[in-house]
Design goal:
The chain contains 15 helices and 22 strands. By secondary structure, the protein is α/β, with parallel strands linked by helices. The structure holds NADP nicotinamide-adenine-dinucleotide phosphate (NAP) and magnesium ion.
């Protein structure tokens, strides 16, 4: 038997990665009740490659009637899926995980093609981690009664799941795997700009033999998402996206008995103390903000450097970012890929203009950007203060603000002073500082001497306006269950 290394699914080909082996249809319908069906809306939209603006495929746009059809299919499937033996359920989820590993290369190439992220990241992080989520939750499926002793865990019913474009397949896995493990059925909507890996997942699910209607994948824009949220026969909403839309959803569900989890925006603080291993910290800063073009809810987008080492850290950081390779997402050497959409590029450019206007000093290394497509160079803002808009608002791009601090209490106060509370990073040799900061920082995830590390067993979620509820680990099961005793 050939050995599958989950963390390295194939050896790198010569750059750029070939698209010859990927199979894409010209037109994608909705995946409802186990089949691809034409949308009642009769409408399709284009999905484009953000690295060159070219159309890749047409994707169906689900209207209210289509959403209703998907919810009905999920409701029908719930009857038998929720009664299936927990062991059988686990086997189905395990099979999805295995098939995802086998198709990892195709998934990775499509993810980079459709969304713009570097192939190295799709290959080494997004796809293996997505498969790992299915493996992890497959294992919980027959252990729920041990996980929640003295309670009888029951599935909720139909889960409506809405995901963003920054980690398309991974977010689908975060949502679908725990829902299935707990006996729920699913209607999932990917983001408009990155539907393709979710649709490939639909094909995989079809091939896996999962009972029809257990997972339904419907594509469309914000209105499709809103129709899922307001559908009366949906028992649970799991949403990942912007704080703005999260608040809208929360308001629209006020007083309605529908369990809701919201994973929203962030403005993570990355804190470097003078006793940190400086070279490692600089690599950590780069990974924290430039990973996935900064399209990361938990990005370390605010850097705090202790004043005594600020000059050396900033100098090394400037040097390091001048070596980052920006360009073709399918090239194995690329560090920074394409910005996901022209809209997102406009948002980032708006914030860069605001930063300059409010008097911060900008630093961008000299680099040649491709002529076609959406690109933004790695950007540093120096001489910023707490009141700057670029320090307070989520930019969701490769833009880092840099502040200095003198004392630990000062940096705690500054780090906590935003409406968000999703992530933070601490770089120091001293365990006592790590301990104090992990107690005092108002964030759902705190990394020590690393950043942007994820594990299916580790719960993820935010404080304050970064969201409600947790995904991952044992905590990620609870929002899909009701309990009897
Ligand atoms: P978004 O505009 O809120 O969209 C997220 C999803 O919701 C998309 O599928 C979107 O569809 C859909 N949607 C839009 N309007 C809706 C409405 N009124 N009702 C229901 N659904 C609606 O967010 P985004 O700009 O795509 O994603 C970036 C945001 O996600 C950032 O703020 C980031 O921090 C956050 N995020 C958070 C986490 C986390 O775990 N906390 C993880 C990743 C991303 P369309 O895209 O088709 O419009
Ligand atoms: Mg959007």
């Amino acid at each position: 038997m050939s050995k599958v290394d989950i963390n390295k699914s194939w050896n790198y080909a010569a750059a750029p990665e070939s698209t010859a082996h990927i199979q894409l249809k010209k037109k994608y319908d909705l995946f409802i009740g186990g089949d691809f069906v034409k949308p009642l809306s009769k409408k399709y939209f284009d999905t484009v490659n953000p690295a060159n603006g070219e159309q890749i495929a047409k994707v169906a746009e689900a209207n209210k009637q289509d959403v209703d059809r998907a919810v009905k299919a999920a409701r029908k499937a719930f009857k038998s899926w929720s009664k299936l033996s927990v062991k059988e359920r686990g086997k189905y989820i395990f099979r999805i995980a295995r098939m995802m590993q086998e198709r990892a290369r195709e998934f990775a190439v499509i993810e980079s093609l459709d969304g713009g992220k570097p192939i190295r990241e799709s290959r080494d992080i997004d796809i293996p981690l997505a498969a790992n989520h299915f493996f992890y939750y497959a294992g919980w499926s027959d252990k729920l009664e041990y996980a929640f002793p003295n309670k009888i865990p029951k599935p909720l019913g139909v889960a409506g799941q809405i995901i963003p474009w920054n980690f398309p397949l991974l977010m689908a896995a975060w949502k679908i795997a725990p829902a299935l493990a707990t006996g729920n059925t699913v209607v999932l909507k990917p983001a408009e700009t990155t539907s393709l890996t979710a649709l490939k997942l639909a094909e995989l699910i079809q091939d896996s033999g999962l009972p029809k209607g257990v997972v339904n994948i419907i594509t469309g824009a914000g209105e499709t998402g809103a129709a899922i949220v307001s559908h009366p026969d949906v028992d649970k909403i799991a949403f990942t996206g912007s704080t703005e839309v999260g608040k809208l959803i929360q308001k629209s569900l006020a007083g309605i008995e529908k369990k809701t989890t919201l994973e929203l925006g962030g403005k993570g603080a990355n804190i470097i103390f003078e006793d940190a291993a400086i070279e490692q910290a600089v690599e950590g800063i780069v990974n924290a903000i430039f990973f996935n073009q900064g399209h990361v809810c938990c990005a370390g987008s605010r850097l705090f450097v202790q004043a005594s080492v600020a000059d050396v850290v900033i100098e090394k950081l400037k040097e390091r970012i001048s070596t980052l390779i920006i360009g073709d997402p399918l090239d194995k050497n690329t560090d920074i890929g394409a910005i996901n959409s022209t809209e997102q590029l406009a948002t980032i450019e708006k914030y860069i203009a605001i930063g300059k206007k409010e008097g911060a000093d900008i630093y961008q290394p000299k680099c040649q950007l491709p002529k076609k497509g959406n690109w933004c160079p790695p950007t540093l803002f120096l001489n910023v203060s707490q009141s700057h808009t670029i320090v307070q608002e989520e930019i969701f791009g490769p833009v880092l603000t840099i502040q200095t601090f003198r004392t630990i209490d000062e940096v705690i106060e500054k780090a906590n002073n935003t409406p968000f509370g999703l992530s933070a990073g601490v770089w120091t040799e001293k365990g006592s500082k790590i301990f104090k900061l992990s107690q005092k920082l108002k964030a759902g995830v705190i990394w020590a001497n690393t950043f942007n590390k994820f594990d299916p067993a580790s719960p993820f979620g935010g404080y304050k306006e970064s969201g409600m509820g947790r995904e991952g680990g044992l905590h990620g099961l609870k929002p899909y269950l009701k309990f009897k005793s």
